[in-house]
Amino acid sequence: MEHLRRLQECNKRNTTLRKAFVQFGITEYDKPLKELNEKEEFSALINWAINHLPVAESMDLRHRVNDKLYQTKLSNNL
């Protein structure tokens, strides 16, 4: 749920993803995505979007919390 609040905060306050998720990270970069736990997987996706999402492209990010599926669209409009 914390991740969803941070994404909502980005939208409301017009904060960047980089600022909102600065303390999240992944420590094992050579570990396959399918072997990561939920927190590591979410962090890896956010970090990829922050650092590598091509300009003028977007991605849909889905996150399950308590049997509810939430979706948000991340886009790089630089």
Descriptive keywords:
78 residues; globular; 21% strand; alpha+beta; 2 strands; two-stranded antiparallel sheet
List the helices and strands and how they pair.
Elements: H1 2-13, H2 17-20, H3 38-52, E1 58-65, E2 68-75
Structural commentary:
- The chain is an alpha+beta fold.
- It has one domain.
- Helix content is 40%, strand content 21%.
- The chain has 3 helices and 2 strands; from the N terminus they run H-H-H-E-E.
- Strands 1-2 form a two-stranded antiparallel sheet.
- A hairpin with a 2-residue loop joins strand 1 and strand 2 (68-75).
- The mean pLDDT is 79.
Rounded to the nearest angstrom, the radius of gyration is 12 Å
Structural class: alpha+beta
Helical segment tally?
3
- Which consecutive residue ranges, at least 5 long each, have pLDDT under 50? none
Give, in order, the helices and strands: HHHEE
* Shape category: globular
Separation, N- and C-terminal Cα atoms: 28 Å
What fraction of residues sit in β-strands?
Answer: 15-25%
The overall number of domains is: 1
The oligomeric state is: single chain
In short:
The chain is an alpha+beta fold and 78 residues long.
